[in-house]
Design brief:
single chain, about 250 residues, alpha+beta, OB fold (Dihydrolipoamide Acetyltransferase, E2P), de novo design (two linked rop proteins), 2 domains, 5-stranded mixed barrel, 7 helices, 8 strands
Length: about 250
């Protein structure tokens, strides 16, 4: 039986048998892995308090050669307690975690997406950043990192550089007036530059931009639609987040 030492953040958890818990841990070295924490509900288990949703920790795991690991120790690095104090923030992070779980196969490392999620959790917990801004940034970047970078250079349909008028989630980027469809999102300079910043900024600076409420509303709608098209999935966690945040009709 080999021991594995790794850093990771818990993105899902659920009960297993009597008193045990399965953790889905997004690790730097191995991507998303599954690990069982035996005796998770026992007050005598020193790891149970730390092994919670969004805990980023140093893990020591044992592996008997199967797809399931066993948690031997869990030393927290960051627990993001501020998120757990706010149901809307918990809902947002749950949705982001669901996106990750949908886009990444088990045991497939992706440091870019891991760092993106950690940065977004940090902003959610400790920065005065609007939740919708965090959501839009995460949706656009995670889809781009997954291989679906939107085309912001020329018309995605006819390749023209002139009369760019809209963003087409279905076509995967900007479109000109002649190729624009009714369901596409009209662009102005502020919306275009906000999209470009989110998609091209350095990872540590992804939240370092300002945009009006009107601009962010359109960017958020674009991001949500773009993510939905590429995941081909309706997320209950997104609907719950929108319900409790009062954004069901936005």
């Amino acid at each position: 039986m080999s021991l594995v030492k790794t850093k990771g953040i818990i993105i899902k958890q659920y009960d297993y048998g009597e008193g045990n818990r399965i953790l889905n841990i997004f690790t730097k070295d191995q991507g998303i892995i599954k690990a069982v924490l035996y005796g998770a509900k026992s007050i005598k288990n020193k790891n149970s308090a730390a092994a919670q949703f969004l805990t980023y920790a140093d893990f020591i795991l044992s592996n008997s050669g199967r797809d399931m690991y066993t948690v031997r120790s869990c030393e927290p690095i960051e627990c993001f307690f501020k998120i757990h104090e706010d149901i809307e923030k918990v809902a947002l992070c749950t949705y982001m975690a669901d996106l990750i779980y949908t886009l990444i196969n088990l045991n497939s490392p992706d440091e870019n997406i891991l760092n993106l999620f950690l940065n977004c959790c940090y902003a959610t917990a400790y920065k005065d950043t609007d939740n919708e801004k965090i959501r839009a940034v995460f949706e656009l970047r995670v889809i781009a990192y997954s291989g679906y970078m939107p085309n912001l250079i020329n018309c995605t349909k006819c390749l023209s550089n002139e009369n760019i008028a809209a963003f087409s989630p279905k076509s995967g980027g900007i479109v000109c007036e002649g190729c624009m469809q009714p369901e596409d999102f009209e662009l102005n300079a502020d919306i275009y530059h906000t999209l470009k910043y989110i998609l091209t900024a350095e990872a540590k600076k992804i939240m370092s931009f300002s945009a009006s409420e009107t601009v962010m509303r359109t960017v958020s709608q674009i991001a949500e639609k773009y993510a939905a098209l590429h995941t081909e999935k309706d997320f209950a966690s997104l609907e719950y987040y929108k319900k409790i945040s009062g954004r069901m009709n936005t």
